[in-house]
Amino acid sequence: MVNNVILGGFFLLLITICFTDFKKREVSNYQVLIALFLCVVASFTFEYKLNYKLSLYALLVGFLLWKIKLFGAADVKLICVYLLCVREENLIDFLFLMSVFGCFIGIFVLLFFKNKSVPYAPAIATSHIIIFYELYCKGL
């Protein structure tokens, strides 16, 4: 029951992230804080340790990517928060899914929108939900 509530919370957050990132090309700090809250609650519920190491590495790399204008600051914050729930052995899966979803979103944006910047937060959030479900909810 609780796992469905947490997963539902991540899914509702994904919907709001998709809406704001596609419409305004931004992810609010409130959305990032909600994601952080859900990750912390999930860590207590599913009894796993938050992965601070991956999150810190992502922050360092993300800061460099933001400085050279390859990634948005909100995307970096969102990745750092979501990586708290990802095990090190699942990092490649998370990055692969994020890249695949980002590619599809990029093609969609290029074909149907005037604004050619790619809203990457939906790809990040969708990848997290899939990895989170596989790690913590599938067997329950």
Describe this entry's structure for a reader:
With 140 residues, this protein is an all-alpha fold. It has one domain (2-137). Helices cover 75% and strands 0% of the residues. It contains six helices and no strands. It has helices at residues 2-24, 29-45, 52-67, 73-82, 91-112, 121-137. Helix 1 (2-24) packs antiparallel against helix 2, helix 3 (52-67) runs antiparallel to helix 4 and helix 5 runs antiparallel to helix 6. The longest helix is centred in the N-terminal third of the chain and has 23 residues, at 2-24. It is globular, with a radius of gyration of 15 Å.
What is the topology?
Blueprint: H1 2-24, H2 29-45, H3 52-67, H4 73-82, H5 91-112, H6 121-137
Please tally the helical runs, counting DSSP H or I stretches of 4 or more residues: 6
Strand percentage, roughly? under 5%
Mean pLDDT: 90
Largest sheet: none
Radius of gyration from the alpha-carbon trace, in angstroms = 15 Å
Number of domains: 1
Helix content percent band: over 70%
The general outline is: globular
Please trace the helix and strand order, writing H or E for each element. Answer: HHHHHH
Distance between the termini: 9 Å
Low-confidence stretches: none
Say how many strands there are: 0
- Return the structural class: mainly alpha
What attributes characterize this protein structure?
140 residues; mainly alpha
